[in-house]
Amino acid sequence: MQKSRMETLTNNLFNIELLLESGGTVLWLILLSSVLMWTLIIERYMFVYVMHPKQVKQLLQSWQQRTERHSWYAQKIRQGMISESSASLHQHLMAIKTLIVALPMLGLLGTVDGMIQTFDVLTVFGTGNARGMAGGISVALITTMGGLLAALSGMYFSTQLEQRVARAEEQIADGLRRH
Fold first, then answer.
1. Is the pTM of this model over 0.85?
2. For residues 22 and 136, what is the distance between their CA atoms, to the nearest angstrom?
């Protein structure tokens, strides 16, 4: 039983390595960009669901400790607290969105690279080297798929994070308004 799992894992790793070799340099760029995007997404989820509630609790305690909360000065402090919290919530969201937009463009770059490889084979060998042409077309298709797949996988979670951040901002403003 254990041996078959190891064989399966080894085969899967080999297939991934083969796919990355087939996609060329651009697919490695897509992989690195995707890893960066997912690192940022995971960090934001950890912040929004773990760290931020603790910060909000401290923020509300700080506001409640104020004896005077209705003057112009106190309202400016309140707005500053809300802005500071909002800025921390929005950190890295623009980088995530940028990577989501850049990943399909990297896939398109791979498509162009693959087609250039195909035309190079056509220039040297004419239409007689189908295997050579298939290599360039393969690069074009694999990188396009990689860029689109990576972008689509991040798009859902990015949208969900933005919605959660908007709700958290409303909750902070309401919490400070009530107290």
1. no
2. 9
Amino acid at 70: H
Which residues fall within 8 angstroms of residue 77, CB to CB, at 6 or more apart? 66
Alpha helices per DSSP H over 47-178: 52-64, 72-90, 93-125, 130-178
> Could you tell me if 59 and 81 are in contact, meaning their C-beta atoms sit under 8 angstroms apart?
yes
What is the distance, to the nearest Å, from the Cα of residue 9 to the centroid of all Cα atoms in its chain?
26
Residue among 108, 103, 116, 120 nearest 158 (CA)? 103
Tokens representing 45? Answer: 């989820």
Q: Which pLDDT tens digit goes with each residue over 63-97? A: 888 888 888 988 888 889 889 999 999 999 999 99
How large is the average pLDDT for residues 31-37? 96
Place of tokens 């994070």: 161
Q: How far, in Å, CA of 178 to CA of 109, rounded?
A: 53
Residue 92 is given by DSSP the state T
CA-to-CA distance for 54 and 150, rounded, in angstroms? 32
Contacts 24+ apart (CB under 8 A), 61-67: 63/176, 63/179, 64/179
